[in-house]
Specification:
The chain is mainly β. It has one domain (12-71). Helices cover 14% and strands 40% of the residues. The protein is built from 1 helix and 5 strands; from the N terminus they run ββββαβ. The protein has one helix at residues 54-64, and strands spanning 10-13, 19-28, 31-38, 50-53, 67-71. The radius of gyration is 12 Å and the shape is globular. The protein starts with 9 loop residues before the first strand and ends in a 6-residue tail after the last strand. The mean pLDDT is 93.
């Protein structure tokens, strides 16, 4: 399954209550890498982030049923 690179600061959820936040997403040479954190920890600078590639991202969408539900850029204060 071909998937697009998710937008930076996007919020993703599934029907089971799982929710993640995309801190960063970059495309390099036809592939992409996504840095994700649990949604509840999105403002914690000490949280451990996971980086997944495009194949792992596609698997998250397919097996976990996550879908984009919004975009939440950080405050500009």
């Amino acid at each position: 399954m071909a998937v697009k690179c998710p937008p930076r600061y996007s919020v993703w959820e599934n029907d089971k209550g799982g929710k993640i936040f995309v801190e960063d997403a970059i495309e390099v040479d036809g592939t992409f890498f996504v840095t994700i954190v649990p949604y509840a920890d999105r403002n914690d600078i000490d949280v451990w982030a996971d980086e997944v590639d495009d194949e792992q991202w596609a698997e998250l969408i397919e097996t976990d049923g996550i879908r984009q539900t919004g975009i939440e850029p950080p405050d500009s204060n």
